[in-house]
Amino acid sequence: MASSPPAGRIDFQRYRKLRRFVQQVFLHVLWWDVVLNAPWLRRFRRPAVERWAEIARRYRALASEMGGVLIKIGQFFSVRVDLLPPEVTRELSGLQDEVPPVDFADVVRQIAEDFGRPATEVFSEISPVPVGSASLAQVHRARLPDGAPVVVKVLRPRIDVLVETDLAAVSLALRLLQVSSRIRRRVDLGRLADEIRATTRSELDLAAEGRNAEHFARDFAGDDRVRIPRVHWEWTARRTLTLEDVGYLKIGDLAALERAGISRSEVARTLYRIYMQQIFAHHFVHADPHPGNLFVQPLPVGGEAPFRPGDPVPPTPAGESRPFRIIFVDFGMVAAIPERLRGALREYAIGLGTRDAARIVHSYVAAGVLLPGADLRRLEEVHEALFARFWGVSIGSLREVAFSEASYFFREYRDLLYQIPFQVQVDLLFASRAVGLLAGMATFLDADFDPWAETVPFAERLAAEELRGDWRGLAGRLTVQGHALLGLPRQLETFLTRVERGQATVQTSFSPEARKTLQRLEKSILRLAWMIVSAALLIGGVMLRANDPQASYGSWLMGLALLAFLYGVLTKR
Questions:
Q1: Which DSSP string corresponds to 534-552?
Q2: In the 3-class helix/strand/coil scheme, how is 438-502 assigned residue by residue?
Q3: Neighbour tally for 494: CB within 10 Å
Q4: What is the DSSP letter of 223?
Q5: Measuring CA to CA, which residue among 105, 126, 72, 159 is closest to residue 242?
Q6: Which residue of 251, 297, 442, 521 has the smallest Cβ count within 10 Å?
Q7: pLDDT in tens, 419-442
Q8: What is the DSSP string of 86-131?
Q9: What is the DSSP letter of 184?
Q10: How far is CA 403 from CA 91, 191, 568, in A?
């Protein structure tokens, strides 16, 4: 195993501790999920949920102690209640608030270094009590010289050293993943490491974060659903960011939302729609939507005066829901979707909303997320089955339904599941992270939230734009077709080279009826194999018993013959 960190400013004591944890997890997976995954050893395996809950507990303790990038990784997995069992997410959920604040004297010193004068000359007032203490920075309320209330985000001291150390540990984990050829085929691990490093380091430039905030403000200008805090550039530097104070109700404070008369299900729907617009229309995505970075601003009803952050919000009349805005903060982690993928994403959205499996597979081809030789017709079949079995299922029930349907999909699409014909596009890594966090947040707000119902109107709107010849729809189609055409010369050259070398192959696809016949034949062959094994064991046992009635070997073999016979007859495949 490679153990030396890359060159740069590294806290070697911290790195050694992180390296030890990474190696322990790697050995754990190697032993429990590879070695003991052999058919004759599986009965010795501990339950996976129990094992991973224990690892999550250890990770939480490590991240709470050491902070840095570890907190962000834990926050991501802590809200994936749509995928991970509650035993794991519960262990990680405490990481949302378990970041101890740095000493206020260090904050004041950092501000003075940034502006070249004492913090008391920069701000007329600054609270020593932080309103938020995140993994990379912490936030204090303050007042500008004119008395305007603001919040000041200041990077933690030595955070650049901690980040570089954590990135070295992440690089080690990615290098360990390279032992798997299946992972190497699907992920460009070198490019993935570069993307993680670039995105994480960009979070240390708070001036760049301010520019990202203004980008979002332009995207949602005139949209009453969204509020982006204003940046005060005169009081902003590389390690200090001063923003308008928008600390209303935390989106994760369900009790406060209910007291204010704000519908949790409406918040979930609005947040989902905003992200659909970010991904498929603006192509610029807030990639860190965990509960600490989202607020809800209650709006006045009737003759109420506008609310300021911290004001008490009276309940609404019975049966009436209070209007609101979603507020985004922390724009350090953003995802800009490249031009080459935008048309494919548009195709995917339309295919998803219209339940068009062929269109979805076509979007995969255009985006380049399929391995060479992937069976496209088979992929269409599995997507049609997914639509038939999961369409309309609420996001809160999705994990339970997925578990109940697992045996069906493994039985019917075992070839596809073993092959896993996808390769990860690193460009979409952080947008995918945002979607994962969004799914967990929507489930937390409303377990009955139906993402399918929210996707249909958006997809229909995109499809209507195409039919009208809308320039964006036309651009999307041209982009998809352009990428397909640009890839033809390379594909043709590859094909002709294989023909010249005698390496060309023809891939065929069975019809559903033929595939079912083949599966029945496979089951019969497997049962026959077990019958042969049991017969051989029985004959061997009888012969040993006849030669030496006192020996126990013959009885053992006959017992094994019975077990092999029962396994072959009773096991469902």
A1: HHHHHHHHHHHHHH-TT-S
A2: HHHHHHHHCCCCCHHHHHHHHHHHHHHHHHCCCHHHHHHHHHHHHHHHHHHHHHHHHHHHHHHHC
A3: 11
A4: -
A5: 126
A6: 521
A7: 677 777 777 878 887 887 888 888
A8: HHHHHHHHGGGT--PPPPHHHHHHHHHHHHTS-HHHH-SEEEEEEE
A9: H
A10: 21, 33, 25
The torsion angles phi and psi of 125, rounded to 5 degrees, stand at -160, 140
Measured between alpha carbons, how far apart are the two ends of the chain, in Å? Answer: 39
Match 């979603």 to its residue by tokens.
326
How far is Cα 114 from Cα 127, in angstroms, rounded to an integer?
18
> CA of 339: how far to CAs of 117, 178, 343, 488, 490, in Å?
44, 29, 8, 19, 21
DSSP type of residue 32: I
Residues forming a β-bridge with 422: 370
Stretch (H or E) spanning 244: strand 240-244
Question: CB count, 10 Å around CB of 544?
Answer: 18
Q: How far apart are CA 490 and CA 488, in angstroms?
A: 5
Specify the pairing of strand 294-298 against strand 324-328. antiparallel
Do the Cβ atoms of 492 and 355 come closer than 8 Å?
no
pTM of the model: 0.73
At residue 38, the 3 state secondary structure works out as coil
Bridge partners for 149 per DSSP:
143
- The encoded tokens of residue 381 equal 């079949």
Return the bridge partners of 297, or none: 325
pLDDT, tens digit (0-9, with 9 covering 90-100), for 58-75:
998 888 888 888 887 777
In angstroms, the Cα distances linking 47 to 30, 32, 50, 407 are 15, 10, 5, 18
Q: How many residues does the chain have?
A: 573
Q: Which residues pair with 241 in a beta bridge?
A: 153
Maximum separation of any 2 CA atoms in the chain, in Å = 104
Joined together, the tokens standing for residue 541 give 């046992």
Q: How far apart are CA 305 and CA 513, in angstroms?
A: 68
- Each residue's pLDDT, cut to its tens digit, for the chain (573 residues) gives 444 444 457 888 999 999 999 999 888 888 887 778 777 777 778 888 888 889 889 998 888 888 888 887 777 677 565 556 777 877 887 776 557 788 999 999 999 999 999 999 999 999 999 988 887 899 999 999 999 999 999 998 888 899 999 999 988 888 887 777 767 777 778 877 888 888 888 888 999 999 999 999 999 999 999 999 999 999 999 899 999 999 999 999 999 999 999 999 999 999 999 999 999 889 999 988 888 889 999 999 888 899 999 899 988 887 789 999 999 999 988 989 988 888 888 888 888 888 899 999 999 888 888 887 788 888 898 889 888 888 877 766 666 666 666 667 767 777 776 667 777 777 787 888 788 788 888 888 988 888 888 888 888 888 777 666 555 545 555 555 555 555 556 556 555 665 655 655 555 455 555 555 555 656 666 666 666 777 777 777 777 666 666 666 667 777 777 776 666 656 555
CB 275 within 8 A of CB 267: no
Cα 423 to the center of its chain, rounded Å: 15
CB-based contacts of 350: which residues, under 8 Å, 6+ apart? Answer: 356, 359, 459, 462, 463, 466
Task: Give the pairing type, strands 334-336 and 284-286.
Answer: antiparallel
